[in-house]
Design brief:
By secondary structure, the protein is an alpha/beta fold. It is built from 11 helices and 30 strands. β18 and β19 form a beta hairpin.
Length: 465
């Protein structure tokens, strides 16, 4: 019995400005039509998977649920109050398992281009995991890449090799030596082992993480479709990767080779590596016009992008940001996100267009004392019953039908009709129709931040208990 465990808590900061903390790369369509999360789930279809669990943070719970709904997938979802790296996340999945399954642990934001080769390697690892080994999958390297950790293989046992050592990201010279020797793999961050075996090793080497995660699951509560981990317990858990916590210490680590067109898609240059290119080596996405341009990755989200006489660049445009970087330096993009954080820039966390469980909004204009949003509400969806201390709102319906609560009045608005909501008045918005409701919201006031919302009722469980 195999249980798939998908870790979906990463931030993907090196793929800014597309990937942001409120909408990171695992929820984006970066390679193919499906999102990274959906592609990871689809990859499992040829394996005998009995159940699946997705582990994500509180903020992304509705993104996960919606993307599962789009592909008719029903998985359990465990919510981490705070990200604590992979060792605790896997422990939560193990403690919540029944009948001691094999846990196939996968990152939700990796690319695997050869599904059959992936399936073959996983099946080859099953006998090793069943005999109590902790199996990781080693990617057969085709270049001396310094962006990956490496695994040194030891003696062969059945379809795998004993792990001799885990090596952090090496220098260029060492990476070349590793690849030339044929005795090293890239560390993929994929694993297969019994739930009980993992917990035994965790209790042995990191009893603090074991105990905290056990308490966190025992006191977890179901909220809608989510298993919400106890925040008071889990906040005390150390942040530790499975490699540091267990794999580098255990005597039962095995590595099974995999040659499946894998990439962790950690940088824009790695996406360029695996993308289709024109005769000049360019990978273009969106409305792009090129002239005398070579070896570039170009992505335009909402406007025309034109280039002339450039080489070896990454150029990415969104509604509110533009990135221009040399393709050889994208490993260091965190320097940009660090500056954004120091400057408290909203572009680090939020896109101009923000997804909500009821639909989305696009902040199309803002200035001193005002902000204009285009709001889309899905059929049957309803925003929370709420009020604001510092802003008034004016709603104008563009298309569809709006059911409005404005103070003690409840009424219907149709196309070209509007309502004004003064500061401090309790209000809500609902779409009773069968098509999207589109409206323009004009906010005015002394403070327009998203934290100026007091919720009284919410069908999505966003009212604090």
């Amino acid at each position: 019995m195999i249980k798939a465990v998908l870790i979906a808590g990463g931030q993907g900061s090196r793929l800014w400005p597309i990937s942001r903390s409120s909408y990171p790369k695992q929820f984006l369509s970066l390679f193919g039509d499906d999102t990274m999360l959906q592609s990871t789930i689809s990859r499992l279809s040829d394996l005998k998977i009995d159940s699946s669990t997705i582990i994500c943070n509180e903020e992304h719970r509705f993104l996960v649920a919606e993307q599962l709904r789009e592909i008719d997938q029903l998985d359990s979802i465990i919510l981490e109050p705070d990200g604590r790296n992979t060792a605790p996340a896997i422990a939560l999945a193990a403690f919540s398992s029944v009948d001691d399954p094999l846990l196939l642990v996968l990152a939700a934001d990796h690319v695997v281009q050869n599904k059959s080769a992936f399936t073959k390697s996983v099946n080859e690892a099953v006998p090793l995991a069943e005999e109590g080994k902790l199996v990781t999958f080693g990617i057969e390297p085709y270049e001396p890449n310094t962006g990956y950790g490496y695994i040194k293989r030891g003696a062969q046992h059945k379809s795998g090799f004993k792990v001799d050592a885990f090596i952090e990201k090496p220098s260029s010279q060492l990476a070349q030596e590793y690849v030339s020797s044929g005795n090293y793999f890239w560390n993929s961050g994929m694993f297969l082992f019994k739930a009980s075996r993992y917990l035994e090793e965790l209790e042995k080497y990191r009893p603090d993480i074991f105990e905290i995660c056990q308490k966190s699951i025992r006191s977890a509560e179901f909220d809608l479709d989510f298993l919400r981990v106890n925040k008071d317990h889990f906040s005390l858990c150390p942040s530790e990767s499975i490699d540091f916590a267990i794999m580098e210490k255990t005597s039962h680590a095995m590595v099974v080779p995999m040659n499946a067109g894998w990439s962790d898609l950690g940088t824009w240059s790695s996406l360029w590596d695996i993308s289709k290119k024109d005769k000049d080596g360019n990978s273009s996405h969106g409305d792009v016009i090129l002239h005398e341009t070579k070896n570039c990755f170009l992505r335009a989200e909402d406007k025309l992008l034109a280039t002339y006489g450039v080489d070896n660049l990454i150029i990415v445009t969104t509604k509110d940001a533009i990135l221009v970087a040399h393709k050889d330096n994208t490993q260091h993009l965190k320097a940009i996100t660090k500056k954004l954080k120091e400057a408290s820039r909203s572009e680090l966390e939020l896109h101009r267009e923000v997804i909500r469980p009821w639909g989305k909004y696009d902040s199309i204009d803002k200035g001193e004392g005002y902000q204009v949003k285009r709001i889309t509400v899905k059929p049957g969806a309803k925003l929370s019953v709420q009020m604001h201390h510092h802003r008034a709102e004016h709603w104008i319906v563009v298309s569809g039908t709006a059911k409005v609560t404005n103070g003690d009045k409840i009424f219907i608005l149709n196309e070209n009709q509007s309502t004004y909501i003064p500061v401090g008045v309790v209000h809500s918005l609902e779409n009773p129709g069968k098509s999207n409701l589109e409206l323009i919201e004009v906010q005015s006031g002394s403070y327009l931040g998203e934290d100026d919302i007091v919720r009284f009722e919410d069908k999505y469980g966003r009212v604090p208990k």
